[in-house]
Amino acid sequence: MQRPRLRDNRGKGPFELYPLGQIPDEIICEIAKWMTYHFAIGKSDINGEDWGDIFAKSIGGEHLSKPLGLADVVYEEMAWSVKSVKLQNPHTTTKIRVISGRCSPDYSYGIYDPHEDIAKTGEAVLAIWNERINIAKERYEPLRTNVLVRNFNSLEFTLFEHETLRYNTRDFIWKENKRGNLEGFDIATNTHRFTWQPHGSQFTILYDLPSSVKKFKVRRPPVFDFENMMQEIGFDESWVTIL
């Protein structure tokens, strides 16, 4: 059902820092600057928390200490679920797998044998995902998924985003693979879209990269010398309080 037209919401729509998928070049430059800083202090890679910090700083937003549903980084009314994937060739890849959190049908629905009724388990997994979107959207709109594909050896990066959508559980069929994991397939196209692992409850979404991806590369900076840095900031033993 479409949004109703009311007198008190005429002309008002969701706030957008920038249009979906059209990440401004100045934000890419800010991202590259913070990555360069991470390299310069000696980091050989970044984890998901690092990427959340970098993206939040680059847009002037906030990286939540605890996600609200799927919302990790927020700016005013907007929110992003931020993910990072490590791949050998970020600039040429067209498909990726993104670990998207844990869905526990045993805790949420009392399904203690996920293999007894695979269709029911798969429906429960997607229902948990949808509810996390509901929680985030109660506070933030729009809600987007932001994915950084990275190679910290070549310093090549691909960044893309899309609207974070609920899934219609009736659009997918679930099968068990030889490892005992459940795989969700789009009924209309027979495309593999999800994997759920009973051991650990890990939920993975498979994405085709959109044409709006941003590709960039960062020049490797020299690494700060530890002793010189300590001298630069004036560190001495008086900074330490032993209790």
Description:
The chain has 243 residues and is of the alpha+beta class. The protein contains five helices and eleven strands. The chain has helices at 25-40, 48-59, 105-109, 118-137, 226-233, and strands at residues 62-68, 71-75, 78-86, 95-102, 143-151, 156-163, 172-176, 182-186, 192-197, 202-208, 214-217. Strands 1-2-3-5-6-11 form a six-stranded mixed beta sheet. It has a five-stranded antiparallel beta sheet with strand order 4-10-9-8-7, with helices on one face. A hairpin with a 4-residue loop joins strand 9 (192-197) and strand 10 (202-208). Helix 1 (25-40) packs across helix 2. The longest helix is centred in the middle third of the chain and has 20 residues, at 118-137.
Per-chain topology:
Elements: H1 25-40, H2 48-59, E1 62-68, E2 71-75, E3 78-86, E4 95-102, H3 105-109, H4 118-137, E5 143-151, E6 156-163, E7 172-176, E8 182-186, E9 192-197, E10 202-208, E11 214-217, H5 226-233
Helix pairs in contact: 1-2
List keywords for this structure.
243 residues; alpha+beta; six-stranded mixed β-sheet; five-stranded antiparallel β-sheet; 5 helices; disordered N terminus
Radius of gyration: 21 Å
State the low-pLDDT regions, or none.
1-11
How do the helices and strands follow one another from N- to C-terminus?
Answer: HHEEEEHHEEEEEEEH
Terminal residue distance:
62 Å
Main β sheet profile: 6 strands, mixed
Percentage of residues assigned to helices: 25-40%
Number of beta-strand segments = 11
Class computed from helices, strands and strand pairing = alpha+beta
Shape: globular
Beta content comes to 25-35%
Adjacency order of strands in the biggest sheet: 1-2-3-5-6-11
Number of helical regions: 5
Mean pLDDT equals: 93
